[in-house]
Design brief:
With 206 residues, the protein is mainly alpha-helical. The protein has two domains: 52 residues, Homeodomain-like (Arc Repressor Mutant, subunit A, Orthogonal Bundle), CATH 1.10.10; 134 residues. Helix content is 73%, strand content 0%. It contains twelve helices and no strands. The N and C termini lie far apart (79 Å). The C terminus is likely disordered. GO terms for molecular function: DNA-binding transcription factor activity; transcription cis-regulatory region binding. This is Putative TetR family transcriptional regulator. It holds the Pfam family TetR_N. InterPro entries: Homeodomain-like_sf, HTH-type_TetR-like_transc_reg, HTH_TetR.
Length: 206
Amino acid sequence: MTADWMRDERPRLAAERILDVAAQLYVENGIAAVGMAEVARAAGCSRATLYRYFDSRQSLQLAFVHREARRIGALVAEEVSAAGDPKDVIVEAMLAAIRLVRADPTLAAWFQLGDSGLAAQIAHSSDVIESLGTAFLGQAGFSGEETSRNARWLVRIIVSLLTVPGVDDTDERTMLEQFVAPAIAEHDSGRARLLPPPDERDARSI
């Protein structure tokens, strides 16, 4: 029997409620262990009804990741000011995203042993996740043809640190400051505003 809330609410709201139910199951059981039957049972609906909203377990997982990525992206934008050195903005945005994910049990569950590979696969293939990375770079003033590629790389690094954390917060910050931000600044097509013009750099080396 379909739950009353699924009859009374609009499809979009019903889908959101299903994602909320799935989120709790992910925390309790781990991502890989949660199937459509478990979600339908917890939501109080039949599997046929659930499939009207999400046509597969993967689509349900992806919808959840997309929703949470948008939420985290909005929180990061609120926390991180676009003012200042663009490389510092990138570091602060990445650290904020990592901290917010770790602080949320429904998101941290995706990076537990056994589920991290699934989280990485979804993150690397998601256009929404990539668009958030591009937004981080845009906020820092980066632009150009290589921004999309750099955004994908940025997301991979965030996923890597969530899966295999650094020694501590200071260690992770140092890695991002020393290796990530300078590399993006050097290779982004908008690097002219981040690095001195070639002739000035040549003059400094004389």
